[in-house]
Amino acid sequence: MELWDLYDAHRRPLNRTHVRGEPLSPGEFHLVAEVCTVNRKGELLLTLRSGEKQKYPNLWECTGGSVLAGEESLQGAVRELFEETGIRAAPEELRYLCSTAEPFDAPFCHMDFYLLMKDAPLTDLVMQPGETVSARWAGRDEVADMIRSGQIARPVAERLVRQGALMEAALREMGLPEA
């Protein structure tokens, strides 16, 4: 049984937990962390959602998921990255980009968006059964084409578009040249 800490609309803790899969009540929010992993070539790591997933099966996404009860957002981001890809990252390797209230998959979630610059050979990645089935690196133009053609899960695609300029600025600060 997966438990989440609950928050209000202003991200103040409600001091109670929620069982995943149960409906959230109005005014209850949970926390989600998403990690965009980019290699030194400027390519974005995308994972293919399992066909077993109820929402957005067989579509590409960035790594992410719900932060568990008792975890901080950054801990959840590091854990989700490892669970879904086998990539180990120290918390200090992830760069916080922004937080948003998301109206998509979970209408009641606060989402924290992180960036990781890491070269990880695809052959070293370990997919999470029932969650991810494949992975690929995609350049900026490829990602844009995948968004246009509907190959990336809609909520992820919309976040990538919304956070694109912020992500590009952070990558430049981290030493990645512009495309």
What does this protein look like?
The chain is an alpha+beta fold and 179 residues long. The chain has three helices and nine strands. It has one domain (29-173): Nucleoside Triphosphate Pyrophosphohydrolase. The protein has helices at 73-85, 140-148, 154-173; strands spanning 3-7, 13-19, 30-38, 44-49, 60-61, 63-66, 94-102, 109-117, 132-138. Strand 1 (3-7) and strand 2 (13-19) form a beta hairpin. Keywords: Hydrolase. This is NUDIX domain-containing protein. It comes from Lawsonibacter faecis. Residues 28-160 form the Nudix hydrolase domain.
What does this entry show, briefly?
The protein is α+β, with helices and mostly antiparallel strands and 179 residues long.
Structural class: alpha+beta
Q: Please name the CATH architecture.
A: Alpha-Beta Complex
What separation lies between the terminal Cα atoms?
A: 44 Å
Number of domains: 1
CATH class: Alpha Beta
**H/E topology pattern:** EEEEEEHEEEHH
GO molecular function, one term: hydrolase activity
Protein name: NUDIX domain-containing protein
Pfam families: NUDIX (PF00293)
Keywords: Hydrolase
Topology overview:
Elements: E1 3-7, E2 13-19, E3 30-38, E4 44-49, E5 60-61, E6 63-66, H1 73-85, E7 94-102, E8 109-117, E9 132-138, H2 140-148, H3 154-173
Parallel strand pairs: 3-8
Antiparallel strand pairs: 1-2, 3-6, 4-5, 4-9, 7-8
